[in-house]
Amino acid sequence: MEPGLVDFQCCWCQKTVHTECLPLIEKFCDFGPFRNMIVPPWCVQVARRKGALQKHLLLRAVKDPGWDKWTPLVVIANKKSGNTDGALVLSEFRKYLNPVQVIDLDERKPPAALQWCVLLAPKIVQILVAGGDGTISWVLTSSHKLDLDPEPPLTIIPLGTGNDLSRVLGWGKHSSGELQVDQVLRDIKGARLSELDRWRVELTSTRHLGLKLPSKVYYMYNYLSIGVDAQVALSFHKTRDSIFYVYGSRVFNKLLYLCFGTQQVVTADCKNLERRLDLYLDGQHIDLPELESIVVLNIPSWGAGVNLWGMSGDGSLRSSQSYHDGILEVVGIYSSFHMAQLQVGLSCPVRLGQAKVVEIRLKEKAPMQIDGEPWEQHPGKLKVTFVNRCPVLVNQNRSD
């Protein structure tokens, strides 16, 4: 047989046909099994961004094709995330969906990506985020600030190392091997709609001479912590942002975390944390034992899959935990060595209580993190209160 074109594949329905059979098929594409997730090309109006050095298309208008149960899917990822796994996600989904539905966070931020929801309201748009917990929190917070109605349900392709929310919602601990887009789309079609509590974290810092700085507001979906685990995360992030960080594999990142955790066994930078802060749960002051970390939990997964609240037992406290009940769980960690024991199930954390409002008064600066994003927090007041619930999709075909 002479070399040449052997068959054709439709870029929308993915059907493949041999050249000899081409005259026998229908001339109109039905968009295949994922038709209800695809925005057909005649429904989109785009415009080129003026004055941009690079040519980017901006979404101007989208119209409903009138298909029954049409719920378009928008994919959001960063091509630089997950050791370039993000680039693979973008490339593969552009083969199945309209390319304008697949958005690179390296080029456009979440508010721009979420314009789909504004243009199609009141039609529901589903959002697929490929990334870690920090990226997911970024998208969820952007959705809240845009006051979208209806707010888009979120689903996940986990990239990176932690991925605690992805584990809880059944989307896996990490994306391994070849990305099977058709299986991901089938899982999304069969997913169950649920809700995730959204929490407001207000930070009021005080500096020299007792002067108060303007309050900062963050939003939390997984957990926040003050102490040794935040110190380990902060050391890792500083290393990752340095010019010497050139090898970003998942195994290498876990090795870095191990090194920084071992370092804290020796240096114990967060020793006597209980003397550096006061903890209040629903207005009641909590007497603290000797600790190096306090963790405020919204979901039953911390530190890449550890169920802190579930592994500790105290008959005076409610044993169950839910991510949509408007209640937070608060636990303590004794040390970096204790943290390592928790990772392998050899110990239990200290249950400090459950509350609808958590307040921490920090007397000295200490490392802090919210959903895996760490920084050095100055003395001040921290208050966590319930805001509302955001829609999420739970994978019913897999759980971790």
TrEMBL record:
GO terms for cellular component: membrane. SMART domains: DAGKa, DAGKc. It catalyses: a 1,2-diacyl-sn-glycerol + ATP = a 1,2-diacyl-sn-glycero-3-phosphate + ADP + H(+). Coiled coil: none annotated. Its EC number is 2.7.1.107. InterPro entries: ATP-NAD_kinase_N, C1-like_sf, DGK, Diacylglycerol_kin_accessory, Diacylglycerol_kinase_cat_dom, NAD/diacylglycerol_kinase_sf. GO terms for molecular function: ATP binding; ATP-dependent diacylglycerol kinase activity. Residues 68-205 form the DAGKc domain. The keyword Transmembrane helix does not apply. It is an enzyme of class 2 (transferase). Pfam families: DAGK_acc (PF00609), DAGK_cat (PF00781). The keyword ATP-binding applies. Keywords: ATP-binding, Kinase, Nucleotide-binding, Transferase. GO terms for biological process: phospholipase C-activating G protein-coupled receptor signaling pathway. Belongs to the eukaryotic diacylglycerol kinase family. This is Diacylglycerol kinase. The lineage of its organism: Eukaryota, Metazoa, Ecdysozoa, Arthropoda, Hexapoda.
